[in-house]
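Recall that a protein's primary structure is simply its ordered list of amino acids. Everything else, from secondary elements to tertiary packing, is in principle encoded there. The following example makes that idea concrete.
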Amino acid sequence: MVESRVVCASVRRAAVLACMAGLVLGFAADTQARVTRIEFGAPTSTCAGNFAVGPYEQLDGIAHGEIDPKNPLNAGIQDIRLAPRNERGMVEYSTTVSILKPVNMGSSNQAMLFEIVNRGNKLNPRFFNVITPGGPAQGDGFLENQGFTLVWAGWQADLVQPATPPSLVTMSAPIAHEHNGHEHNGRTITGPVRSEFIVSAPAASQPILADSSSNTPGYPTVSLDNSHDVLTMRHRQDSPRMVISNSDWTYADCVLPGHQGPTTPPPFPGTQNAQKVCLKNGFSPDQIYELLYTAKDPIVMGLGLAAIRDVAAFLRHESADDAGTQNPLAGHIKWSLLNGISQSGRLLRTFLQLGFNQDEQFGRVFDGMQPHIGSVRNYINVRFAQPGRLAGTQHTEKQYPGPEGPLTYGKSFDPFTGEEGGLLDRCEATHTCPKIVHTMSDTEYWEAAGAFDTVDPSGRQDVDIPGNVRIYQLASTQHGGFSPALPLPKVSVPPSTGICEQLPNANSYTYNMRALLVALLDWVANRAEPPASSYSTLAGGTLVPPEKLNFPTIPGVTGPNGIWNTRLVYRRGPKYDADDVSGIISVEPPKAGAEYPTLLPQVNADGNARDGVPSVTLLAPLGTYTGWNVRRAGFSRGDACDLTGSYIPFALSREQGEEDDERLSVVERYRDLAGYTAAAQAAADFLVGKRYLLSEDRKAAVDSAVSQAKQAGLQ
C-alpha cells in the first residue's frame, strides 16, 4: 500500500494499518484537512411542489479547502508531497458545492444524502425520483417527500465545463512537479499514458483521453512529434493489435474530408494540438484504438477523495468557515449518507478502502453508504489518473486499473497475488466504518467481476458478509436500470439500428432502490435491521461458471457465449500498488498474468436470474431480461455491448411465436390483462412483505408493469 512507503516502510499490511491508526490518533487536530472558506450565492431555484416537508431551495457555491501533506490522513494521496503549497505549507483545492434542501429545515428528516457526482453530473434526482416525460422536473418528488437534504461536491479534477448548459459539478486541484528537498523547482513530471478510443460514429479526431473520460481534455503529450509513440487498432477486445503508421496520424484537431466549415479545423493533418489525436482516414466504430504516449503535468487527482471527506464533515459539523460565513446546514444534520452510482459507486468503494471515512477530528464522516453498480474500484489515486474510465468491461477499457483485489468488504485471501485484505480494513482499524447497502445489477457479474464482491478470489466459496454490510443483486437488471415511466422498448424498423443486437433491458429496479435507501436510513437512524442480503451464491447453486449456464434457446438471439469479461492479474510496474489501486504506472500496456475464474448468475427456463432481489416486472415477466447484450455488425460484432442488458420479449401467443422458442407465450402465462394484473398485484404484495418495495410505491409499481403488458398487446 502507498502509505506503507511513507510512514511504515517494510511492514506487512496488517501491521501498517495498526501503525497508521496509531499515528493518526496522535496527530494534532489543528493541522488537519479542512474547508477554510465556503461561498454561496442566493437560492437559485425553489421547488414549490406539494412535498410532504414543504418547498425546496437550491444553493450553489464554491468550497475552498486545504490539507497538510504531512498528515497521515492524507499521506496516501498520490503525489501529495509534490503538490505546490501555500505559505502555511498546505495544499489547496477548490470544489463546486450544490445543496438542495427544504426551505424549512426543521421539517427535514435530518439526513444529508451526499451523492458522488458521475463525471460531474448529478444523478440522484432522476434516479430515485420517477420522471414522467413532459411532467415536472422533480418527477414524483420521492427524495423531497422523504425530507432528504441533497448535497453534491466536485471530486474529478480533470473535467472542464461543456460549451452549453447544464454545468458540471467540478473540482480544481494542482499539478504535481518534481522538487529537491522541500523546495519545488517546477520541473515537469512526465510518464507513460495509455489511452483508448471507441467511437459510436465515424470521427476524424478525438481528445487524447476520450471515450469514457468525457469532458476531459486529457494530459498533453510532451511532444507533437509522434515518432516515439504508438497508435494501434483491433477489431475486438482479444483481436491482435495492428500498428497504424505514424505518418497516418498526428497530434492535432481535424475533421473528415468534406466536413470543413468556416469555424472547424481542416482535414488531416489538422491543426496541431497537444491534447487531440487526428487519424487520416478517421476513427471507425468497428475498431478499438489504443494510444501509448508520454504525457506531462499529472493532476494530484486523489485530492478529490479529501474534498468529499472535508466538505461533508464541514456541512455536518461546522457552524461557519474561517471568515465567519455561516454553514447553511449547521445544526440540522443528524445523519449523513453517501451514495454513488456506477463510476461514482466505484469511487465510493475507493474512498472507503483508502480510509477517507475518517474526518479531521478522527470521527466517522458518513454513517451509511450505498455504492450502486460499482463492483470494483476507481482509477483516481494514480499518477496520470484517468478516473473517468470504466475500469474495464469485456469490450471497452478492459485493462485499466480498478478490478484489482480486494473486492470483498471483509478479509479474503487471493491465491493469485498472495495478498489478504478487505475494503473495511482501514475503517475497522480506526472504528469509522459505516453501515453499507451495496446494490448491483446482473451486468456487474458479466462485465465487472461482481461475483467477487461475495466470493473468495479463488472462486471456490462464498465469503462471510460483515455485519455492517448488506449486498443485494437486483435480479435480471442492466447496469443503468430502466425508468418505470418509459414505454416498453419496441423492435425498431429496420431492426438493426443502434449498437446492440437486442432491445435494452426493460426490467426497472427503481422501486427496489427506493426501498433499500429508506432501509439504509432506518438502519442508521433507528438501528432497524434492513432486509437480509440477497444475491446469487455458490452454495445455493445460483452462481455458476459459464459452461453451466442454462440459458434457453431463443430463435434469432445470439447467445451469451464468450461475452463475459474475464478478470486478470496485471503487472503495472514496481511503483504501482494493486491492493490500493494507487501509485505510479510504468508498464503500459500492463503485463497480463493469472486469470480468475468467471462466475455468473444462473437462470431459469425463461433465461431470468434465479436469485437476488426481484421486481414486480421480474415476478410477472413479459420476456427474458438479461445483464448482457451483444454488439451488432459495424460495431465490433460479437463483443459485449457495454453495460447494456437485453429485453427479449415473449411471443404474445403460441401461434405468434417461433416454433423453436422454448419459452411460454404471454397468453399461456396470464391468459389476459386481468390475469396479468392479478399476477403483478401478488408480486407487489410479496415484495412489500419482504421490504423490497415500499407500501406507498406498490400501486405505481403495479401500474408500470400493467402498462408494459398493455404495450405488449395483452388485452
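Residues 32-180+298-333 form one domain. The first strand starts at residue 34 and ends at 40.
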